Amino acid sequence: MEFQYVALDKNGQHVSATATADSVAALISRLKNKGFIPLRVSETRQASAQISKIKKIFIPQITSKELVVFTRQLATILNSGVLLTDAIMTIAEDMDNQYFCDILKDVWTDINGGKTLSLALSKYPIFPTTYTAVVKSGEEVGNLGNTLMGLAKYLEDSERTKEKIVNAMRYPTFLFLFMLLIVSAMVIFLIPKFSRLFSNAGVELPLLTRIVVGFSDFCLKNAALEILGITGLGFLVWHLLKNPEIRYKFDYYILKLPIIGNLALKALISQFCRTFGILISGGVSMVAALAVSSDVMKNLYLNNIIDQVRAKVISGEALSDAMKAHKMMPRIMVKMIAVGEKSGKLDEMLTKTSDYYDRDLESALDGFTSLLEPVFVVLIGGIVLIVALALYLPIFKLSATAH
After folding, report:
1. CB 268 within 8 A of CB 258
2. In contact, 306 and 293? CB cutoff 8 Å
3. What are 124-164's pLDDT values in tens digits?
4. What does pTM read for this prediction?
5. DSSP output for 58-85
6. Domain spanning 161-403, CATH architecture
7. Which fold has domain 64-157?
8. pLDDT attached to residue 49
9. Burial of 56 (0-12, 13-18, 19+ CB in 10 A)
10. Which of 35, 81, 270, 342 stands the most exposed, by the fewest C-beta atoms within 10 Å?
């Protein structure tokens, strides 16, 4: 199969090219052996990519929590003095996820064959570049157990931040779906019954009633076209966002949106600082750490900014000075990085910065959800009121005519 890949070479420069390999894991392993750090690997053929996505649904997956548990278990066992191979086999034998168990047994075989843990893990996409880079740094300094313990905390903090975002959006999502359910029930069941009643009565309908009944009739008569239209629009947006230029502009305008853009920026900056901090603390070079941390953010606009910052760092400029030139980079983060550079404790300041933005994000999410709740309540009440008025106005008119 043919793949398109983006990687960092030994000098920290981006390399983009195509290559053939039996699988993604095989290509990643080959790039690692050449001293490259893979950032993205994808199949060039659309058909193969679609087949891969379909197959992925039926293949047992490894959750983030399982990866966290494995990392902490391995760190704890290694710190107790157990050999690496014995530690991995012990964890594999107690693993409930058979797919994960088989991977660990393959890793055990590779290590016995002379490979390092980081190289053995890099064969599998479930271990991200950040993960294998930190493991490699722990191997190089000879302190793998403590490095893995720090990595486990990094994974736990990342997972906790994701859970906060998901939990914060559950109630607003429920209210939105509830509103759609109410509107659908009125459009499909309630309004058509009253429409037939008014038609049989032969009464002239008020403007509001005609609008509501017309909306219901339009939705029911064109339901198939509406479903196709929504599906087609979703596919079109998905296809357009695959274009790097369009995705770049989309990511930029997302960050510029009121409230939502602020929330997105806080989450991305927290993720960047946490990843950058764990890599720096593990001994990864600043240039390589910037590239890996940038890729973790999944925002092309911010990725471009970090690429510019990385280029300035390579030319000898201080990290904080390079970031200061970009207005999108929060001033608090820049100042804390500057303090970290001067004190020689950049990794600690990055961790503190990430913790600060985590707390700030949690507070902002609470405020956002508190704002959404009354908005949805007013919307639901407004919709019900409009429909009630539209349906009962003709009834009042009929009653007045009868008298």
Report:
1. no
2. yes
3. 888 988 899 889 888 988 889 989 999 999 999 888 888 88
4. 0.74
5. HS----HHHHHHHHHHHHHHHHTT--HH
6. Up-down Bundle (1.20)
7. Receptor-associated Protein (1.20.81)
8. 43
9. exposed
10. 81
